[in-house]
């Protein structure tokens, strides 16, 4: 059985990296790249995918991303998924253009839109991460994480300019034009 692997949260300025592996046990209708689906459709598919699959979800917090680097965190997450799903999976396929040097990991660009298991992983990763960002929005209301999910939107960057970074922000992700301001003001 194929284990599809995908991630959400590679590029945001705040919040975790979420990597998911999925092995479908039953057919799930309507799968696609999570970015091509509405939030409502993703959330509906989320529960169905969980019921009809073996899956493993790995969260890596922003502090660990800053300490180890994004590529190392991706690689560690993929290895954890492979270890946890090795009994059920006969092969592993990652969305993207690299295997991160991991043996027995295949990769395919746009697999999240063309391979059902990877589409399912894409949806679980996106919804899991979005739900996390909605939860932390309650702890850090001034950043409005529930709206932009930690991505570098104009509104989010303006809030960082105003308040500095919180513990959910990735300090190694530099923001053009404001890191100099933040460093001068010692806001973080």
Automatic annotation (TrEMBL):
It catalyses: Endonucleolytic cleavage to 5'-phosphomonoester. It is an enzyme of class 3 (hydrolase). Keywords: Cytoplasm, Endonuclease, Hydrolase, Manganese, Metal-binding, Nuclease. GO terms for molecular function: manganese ion binding; RNA binding; RNA-DNA hybrid ribonuclease activity. InterPro entries: RNase_HII, RNase_HII/HIII, RNase_HII/HIII_dom, RNaseH-like_sf, RNaseH_sf. Pfam families: RNase_HII. Its cofactor is Mg(2+); Mn(2+). Its EC number is 3.1.26.4. GO terms for cellular component: cytoplasm; ribonuclease H2 complex. A divalent metal cation binds at residues 6-7, 95. Residues 1-184 form the RNase H type-2 domain. One of its GO terms (biological process) is DNA replication, removal of RNA primer. Endonuclease that specifically degrades the RNA of RNA-DNA hybrids. Belongs to the RNase HII family. NCBIfam families: PRK00015.1-3 (NF000595). This is Ribonuclease HII. It comes from Halarcobacter mediterraneus.
């Amino acid at each position: 059985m194929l284990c599809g692997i995908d991630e959400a949260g590679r590029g945001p300025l705040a919040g975790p990296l979420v990597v998911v592996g999925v092995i479908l046990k039953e057919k799930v209708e309507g799968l696609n790249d999570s970015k091509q689906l509405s939030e409502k459709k993703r959330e509906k598919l989320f529960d169905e995918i969980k019921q009809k699959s073996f899956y493993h979800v790995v969260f890596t917090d922003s502090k660990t991303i800053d300490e180890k680097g994004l590529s190392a965190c991706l690689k560690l997450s993929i290895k954890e998924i492979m270890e946890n799903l090795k009994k059920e999976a006969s092969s592993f396929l990652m969305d993207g253009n690299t295997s991160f040097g991991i043996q027995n990991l295949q990769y395919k660009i746009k697999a999240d839109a063309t391979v059902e298991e990877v589409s399912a992983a894409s949806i679980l990763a996106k919804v899991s991460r979005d739900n996390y960002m909605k939860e932390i929005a309650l702890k850090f209301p001034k950043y409005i994480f529930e709206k932009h999910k930690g991505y570098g939107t104009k509104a989010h960057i303006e809030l960082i300019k105003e308040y500095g970074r919180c513990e959910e922000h990735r300090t190694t992700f530099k923001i053009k034009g404001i890191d100099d301001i933040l460093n001068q003001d010692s806001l973080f």
